[in-house]
Amino acid sequence: MSLPAPVEHQIHTADGPLPGLLWLPEGTEDGRPVPGLVVFQEIFGLNEFVRSRCEDLAARGYAVLAPAVYARLVPQGEQAPVVETPADAAGEDFMPRAMELVGQVDWAQAVRDGLAARDELARMAGVDQDGVGLLGFCFGGGLAFNVAASAAQAGVPVTALVSYYGSALPDLLELAGSVDCPSLHHFGTSDSYIPMDQVEKIREAVTAGGSRDQVRFELHEGADHAFDNPHPMFHHAEAGARAWEQTVAFLSEVLPSGVLPSGVLPSGVLPSGVLPSEALASPTIPSEVRPSVDGR
Question: Considering the entire predicted model, what is its pTM?
Answer without folding.
Answer: 0.87
